[in-house]
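Bumping my old thread because nobody answered last time. Still need a sequence for this structure:
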């Protein structure tokens, strides 16, 4: 089953379980975020990827330059372990991780969570790739992805028990748009997926196709 189909099935099953008032607030916030044009301001193909150095779940520093020294990078931004859509997306990436590695690509995932939360997530799903902590979403902001939750949606998340104040190290309101980039060794973004709808994620097969296209391009140079 494709990731898109998994996400759609989960959303269809979950939606009726949400309280009507919460569902209305979530739907309105989604419409407002889409209308804000935030996704259109995010970096896209042809842009230089902003450099970063972020702590991994196990506490070591991971720099984009160091990753690019080994090959192309697949960089994915997600909201956090509390988000079930993020869980599904990361599990799908893990299932195809060997295929990324076969293409010489390094996969890293970035969220605004504190490292302890990232470690719990990595252990839960036996992730073989680095999960990095971007406290305050400063790196997400450099990629044009960071936004602040509206007050009413933040209150809904509080009622759901997500405790973003704790898991995001005091930056409860700031989250990234779901996004995935393929960055070549020169540091240029060659493929991009950005969507204001958190129920939508990059399909692993499309990422692999982008890596294949990057390799074909490199062979012709």
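Sorry it took so long. Here it is:
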């Amino acid at each position: 089953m494709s990731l898109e189909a998994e996400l759609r099935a989960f959303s269809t099953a979950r939606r009726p379980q949400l309280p009507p008032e919460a569902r209305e607030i979530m739907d309105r916030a989604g419409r407002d975020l889409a209308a804000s044009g935030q996704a259109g301001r995010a970096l896209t193909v042809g842009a230089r990827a902003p450099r970063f150095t972020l702590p991994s779940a196990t506490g070591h520093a991971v720099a984009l330059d160091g990753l690019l020294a080994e090959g192309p990078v697949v960089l994915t931004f997600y909201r956090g372990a509390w988000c079930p859509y993020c869980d599904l997306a990361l599990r799908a990436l893990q299932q195809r991780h060997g295929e990324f590695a076969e293409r010489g690509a390094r996969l890293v995932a970035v969220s605004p969570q504190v490292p302890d939360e990232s470690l719990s997530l990595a252990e839960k799903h036996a992730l073989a790739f680095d999960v990095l902590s971007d406290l305050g979403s400063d790196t997400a902001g450099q990629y044009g992805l960071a936004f602040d939750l509206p007050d009413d949606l933040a209150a809904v998340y509080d009622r759901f028990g997500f405790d973003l104040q704790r898991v995001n190290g005091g930056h409860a309101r700031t989250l990234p748009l779901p996004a995935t980039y393929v960055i070549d060794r020169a540091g240029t973004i060659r493929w991009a997926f950005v969507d204001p709808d958190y129920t939508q994620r990059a399909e692993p097969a499309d990422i692999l196709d982008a890596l294949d296209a990057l390799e074909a391009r490199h062979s012709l140079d």
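The CA atoms of residues 82 and 212 lie 33 Å apart. Let me know if any region looks off to you.
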